Amino acid sequence: MREEILLNQTNALQLEKLYRGNKPDFKAAFNALYPELRSNPLAEGWYQRLNYSPDERFWGTPSERAFVVTASLLAALLAKLPELLSISEDFYYPRNVGFIVAPALMAYFAWKNAISWKTRGLAILLLAASVVFINWLPQNEQSDTLILSCMHLPLWLWSLLGAAYSGGKWKNGASWLEFLRYTGELIVMSGLLVLAGGLTTALTINLFGLIGWDVQPIFSKYIVICGLAAVPIVATFITRVQPTLVNKIPSVIAKLFSPVALLMLIVYLVATLIAGKSPYHDREFLLIFNGLLVAVMALIFFSLAETDHSGGNRGQIVLLFLLSAVTLLVSSIALSAVLFRISEWGLTPNRAAVLGANVLMLAHLFYVGLKLFAVLSKKSELSAVGASLAIFLPLYSIWSAVVIFVFPFIFGFK
Fold first, then answer.
1. CA 95 – CA 85 distance, rounded (Å)
2. Which of 99, 187, 189, 302 could join 235 in a cystine, given CB atoms 3.0 to 4.6 angstroms apart?
3. Poorest-confidence range of 78-82, 150-154, 376-380, 384-388?
4. What average pLDDT does the chain have?
5. At residue 76, does pLDDT exceed 80?
6. Does the structure show a pLDDT above 90 at 130?
7. Closest Cα partner for 106 from 157, 153, 171?
């Protein structure tokens, strides 16, 4: 390696190939040779590249850390409100679980992006209206509109968070794409924190159990609930101040699971035909079918966001095009099944919600598929795919708002 570096010390491309072929040996050999190559500007650049180390001690400013601690304590307080105010947990958590974390994250990005007070006031008004409305809905466990409102509320709050992330600009496609990447990083980091917290909790409970102290009720009642409430806030803080910790993980996950999802979808469709299962007459099967559709679409969107960020390669683009095409077929079947059930048994809140979601997903998949095909045909750039991905995200927000705030009145709170 030493001789190869000396021979190619002025050839940037060849040095890059050597480096990528064996990074550890290249670094060791180059650092040993550096005193001889110090006068070479290219060697100086490589030395800085190989030996640069970000400040691992940097964990945000004091004001950021204070914000995270305060927000985590407030989230923990909101999570314990049912116990503090004697509110029914069955009433409180389905309606308000999103409000435990979303306002704190919105405030964080509003602060970091220096959003105008006018925009902040609008966001506060929307949050307050959402809190009042969802808690005003009549308590009826059999109400489909109530269940739908509670199910769509996290999506509505997620879209409000996206607006805060993009600086209050709903039409900024690049910011929405960055928000998708942040969401992937948030999921990964939150999962790691939950895993670490779970292992620590299990170890602590068992250690105290060895000396005859049963601390499990205390942990379950206070530590676990408060910790879970703080996880998204802490995870967001970590991804912002230490972006190199997790920014490559969503890309790796997307590349690993995209071919698995494609194979699974094809096998599942064939198995469905062989088994004689039909979403047209089996309601539970249709629900599972739509759940599968949502999961695969989320994988496609996160994969596209990471591919657009990294530049991707033709093989990855072909794979995503095939996955979007098969998912488009699944979406078409699901949509036709919903239309069939509506024509046979009439319109209900659940069918209306699923119909709207399926129409939106079908249109989105078709549009994204066209852009992917254009990239494969060399008629468009990969950035156009990212734009096609982002342009529909506000539409999902609008649809979630319709289901939450309009459906109860249209269907008489049934």
1. 16
2. 189
3. 384-388
4. 82
5. yes
6. yes
7. 157
CA–CA distance, 311 with 375 (Å, rounded to integer)? 12
The domain segmentation of the chain, as residue ranges, is: 2-51, 62-245, 249-410
Q: And the tokens for 364? A: 């989105």
User: What digits encode the pLDDT tens for the residues 96-118?
Assistant: 999 999 999 999 998 888 888 88
Indicate the pTM of the whole model: 0.79
Structure tokens at 103: 């306002």
Q: CA 407 to CA 133: how far, in whole Å?
A: 12
Query: When comparing pLDDT for 191 and 277, which is higher?
Result: 191
pLDDT at residue 55 tops 90: no
